[in-house]
Write a structure and sequence with these properties.
Layout (H helix, E strand, L loop, with lengths): L14 E8 L4 H13 L2 E7 L7 H7 L8 E4 L2 H10 L3 E5 L6 E2 L11 E6 L7 H6 L2 E4 L11 H17 L2
Parallel strand pairs: 1-2, 1-6, 2-3, 4-6, 4-7, 5-7
Helix pairs in contact: 1-2, 1-5
């Protein structure tokens, strides 16, 4: 028998993860990020940018998870990351760079809360934030493309992070 959200045996759990979105502005992506934030039990979702669409298209995709996810909207991702760094968060950017480490071999720690920074659909995480990050991780890819949708990449990253954090 297929289970629904009414009869699954998943136990609610909140992980010390704050997801910071650096200029993610596509309504469907934002709606999907709400669903994912709920599914993975992250502590907070912070949407950063000057024009964050929270309209009908976003709510259709989110399936009402924006009502249960702890979130905020801020103008500057850089200011948010700087503040989290001062609050002793482990700042990790999800981006492909010369120095990024593959996520499958990265060891996440539960010593302090984690801030996962994801980037703009077209330009990724900004250079200023990459310089603030303590670690930069990427997802190995094996095709011709060098990027994937921000939501798909974040799903993979949160799966790996929560899988490791459950072990502690």
């Amino acid at each position: 028998m297929q289970l629904t959200h009414y009869n699954t045996k998943f136990k609610p759990h909140t992980f010390p993860i704050t997801l910071v979105c650096d200029n993610v502005t596509n309504s469907s992506n934002i709606g999907s990020l709400f669903r994912m934030a709920d599914a993975f039990g992250i502590e907070k979702l912070i949407l950063c940018g000057e024009a964050i669409p929270l309209g009908r298209k976003m709510t259709k995709t989110s399936r009402a998870t924006e009502k249960v996810v702890n979130y905020s909207i801020k103008n500057s991702a850089l200011e948010v990351v700087e503040a989290l760094k001062h609050q002793n968060y482990h700042i990790i950017a999800l981006e492909i760079t010369n120095d990024s480490k593959p996520i499958h071999s990265f060891q996440f720690s539960n010593n302090k809360p984690l801030a996962l920074i994801i980037g703009d659909e077209n330009f990724g995480v900004s250079e200023y934030i990459l310089k603030l990050a303590e670690d930069i991780i990427h997802i190995d890819m094996f095709g011709n493309n060098s990027s994937m949708n921000v939501v798909q990449a974040t799903n993979i990253a949160l799966y790996e992070i929560t899988k490791q954090l459950r072990a502690f």
